[in-house]
Every structure is written in C-alpha cells, then in structure tokens.
Amino acid sequence: MIGLLLLPSLFGPLFGNAERWIAGLSPAATLEKLTQTSDAAADTVGSLGPWPSLLLVAAGTADVSLAALLLLGRRDV
After folding, report:
1. What's the whole-model pTM score?
2. How many whole angstroms separate alpha carbon 66 and alpha carbon 19?
3. Per-residue pLDDT of the chain (77 residues; tens, 9 = 90+)
4. With CB atoms counted within 10 Å of each terminal CB, which end of the chain scores lower, N or C?
C-alpha cells in the first residue's frame, strides 16, 4: 500500500512535462490540495483543482472500502 502511495511521486520525473500532472494524482498530493490554506498559490500543490481532488479521494476511499467488504464476505463466513 505504501508503494502505491509513493509511485506517482517516484516515477513522475520520468514523464518530463507530465510530471506535475502525474505527481498531482497521488493520494498525498490530493489531500494536500484539499487542506492547503487560502494564502497558498493554486499551483503550489498538485495540478488538480479542489473538486477533482475531493472526487479522487472519495473514489479511492470507496474502492478500498469495497475491496475490504468483498474480502470480509469471502473470508469470514
């Protein structure tokens, strides 16, 4: 799981001009975007806006919750 959190920031520099966009998709960057203060520039953290960041965090949370629910139903009878 930690690898999935770090992959976008580790491999982002390999993509040249798309580095900022790829690094902005990491869960850490989206959470930073949601918690940035109003005095920070909009381009300081990540490349996504606040609403897409919120949707990305919500989708990730829903995916992990659904996977946990399916595993719970399969393993714990």
Report:
1. 0.57
2. 30
3. 677 677 777 777 777 777 777 777 777 777 777 777 555 555 555 566 778 778 888 888 899 899 999 999 888 76
4. C
- What is the distance between the alpha carbons of residues 32 and 15, in angstroms, rounded to a whole number? 22
**Cβ–Cβ < 8 Å for 5, 26:** yes
Buried b (16+ CB within 10 A) or exposed e, 10-44: eebeeeeeebeebbbbbbebbbbbbebeeeeeeee
